[in-house]
Amino acid sequence: MNILFITDHDAEPTSGGIDRTVTVSSQLLSKYGYRCYLAYFNTTENRQTAPFEDRFHIEKENFTAQFTGIIAKNQINHIIVSTAAKQNTRFILPAVRQSAGAIPVYFWYHCMPGYELVPMDLNVAFYRLFHNPRKLQTLKKIIISALSFMRPVMKLMLRRKYSYYSRYADRIIVLSRPSRLSFARLAGVSKNKVSFINNTLTYGYPVDEYTIRRKTKTVLIVARIDEDSKRIALALKIWRQIENKKELSDWKLFIVGSGEDKNYCRCLARKLKLQNCHFEGRKNPLEYYKRSSIYLMTSSNEGFSMTLLESQQMGVVPVAFDSFDTVRILIQNGYSGFIIPEKDIKTYVHQLSRLMTNWEKRQTMAKNAVENSKRFRQEKIIEQWKITLCH
After folding, report:
1. What are the extents of the domains in the chain?
2. For the chain, percent helix, then strand, then coil, each to nearest 5?
3. At what angle do helices 359-373 and 345-356 cross, to 10 degrees?
4. Which residue has the higher pLDDT, 55 or 90?
5. What is the pLDDT of residues 231-286, one digit of tens each?
6. Least confident span in 196-205, 318-327, 366-375
7. Which residues contact residue 358 at a Cβ distance below 8 angstroms, ignoring those fewer than 6 apart?
8. What is the largest CA-CA distance in the chain?
9. What DSSP character marks residue 141?
10. CATH, domain 2-116+152-199+377-389, list 3.40.50.2000, 3.40.190.10, 3.40.50.10400, 3.30.70.1350
11. Which residues have C-beta within 8 Å of that of residue 293, sequence separation ≥ 6?
12. What would the mean pLDDT of 71-86 be, rounded to a whole number?
């Protein structure tokens, strides 16, 4: 069976977000006999080997002709559109639908349905307005966040957006059972048109007990530095309180990733006078996972967090806010990590501090985290793919 993935970028293993999810999923499908192909719009610098039979760079004209040629030449049986860029999705879906004929088309939605309704931090918004190039988009977000009466309008716009996906795709794929119900409700479509496939484990092996025992006094964040969803600024404010505790002065925070708000967060770190906070930029996170003890997440929304899976697989105990549906699927609270009530910074700092000062507790929870992550091992997730593709 031949599958064509369509993405914004030339997906490769060290990318984050959607690109990483597509790469890991194609690795899984290839392992079980599927032949995966990739069509993409934007090239990626320093691209590494990824598990695709072939890759096709799509020019932004004559979409239908390009897709028709790729489909015919490679005998494609399924097409999975996995784009996030609005301009790409808007033109791709009608072209793919026309090219596909009777071949099933899926739209793979990686975000938390309704994330667009989460208000933006106005401090970040005004910083972007004066320092970032996308001023019109930022101004729109400021208006939506500041004016509560805009929310019903946003819901109507959201329904229009989601129903557009449903109009051209035979099925919608989301990342969890709760997201399936949320997407169907927001789009105004039957839940029978929406399937869910959980993300699978990124790495082919879990960390061993020897590595867990050798973990250092390191707290880790692996994320795109984007305040719309990741709230790294909130993490920095939490870390300020940690640095105020003398007994935790030998702990360090490493932030792996880059993004639109990296300068804002660096400025905030200097303003807070953080001493043990290190911005590492975009790097392969594996070695950081291996040596880190605690994973810190402050996201306002997530689809089905790859980093919560990766951290637990590598024995890094996660602490996260109860701000998105799938956090309770990914973390067993008090067993493999801690789930903190949304915006309860006092409790977050308290639980984080307790974990940092209790080596035995960290060791136990790290081992539990590894076991918990096995619920999403490849042989389980491939069954979800088979059910969806054979539906």
Report:
1. 2-116+152-199+377-389, 209-375
2. 50, 15, 35
3. 100
4. 55
5. 999 999 999 999 999 999 999 999 999 998 999 999 999 999 999 999 999 999 99
6. 196-205
7. none
8. 66
9. H
10. 3.40.50.2000
11. 215, 216, 217, 218, 219, 316, 317, 356, 362, 366
12. 92
Q: Is 60 exceeded by the pLDDT of residue 204?
A: yes
Averaged confidence pLDDT in the chain:
91
Give the integer Cα–Cα distance in Å for 86 and 97. 17
In contact, 165 and 194? CB cutoff 8 Å: no
DSSP 312-367: HHTTPEEEEES-STTHHHH--BTTTBEEEPTT-HHHHHHHHHHHHT-HHHHHHHHH
| Fold entry, domain 209-375 | Rossmann fold (3.40.50)
Let me know the angle formed at the C-alpha of 124 by 282 and 90, rounded to the nearest 5 degrees. 70
Segment 152-167 mean pLDDT? 90
Write out the two tokens for 166: 């449903």
Phi, psi at 152, each rounded to 5°: -60, -35
Mean pLDDT of 302-331: 96
Q: Which of 389, 7, 20, 323 is nearest to 201 (CA)?
A: 20
Q: At what angle do helices 232-243 and 345-356 cross, to 10 degrees?
A: 60
Q: Which two tokens stand for residue 110?
A: 């990686």
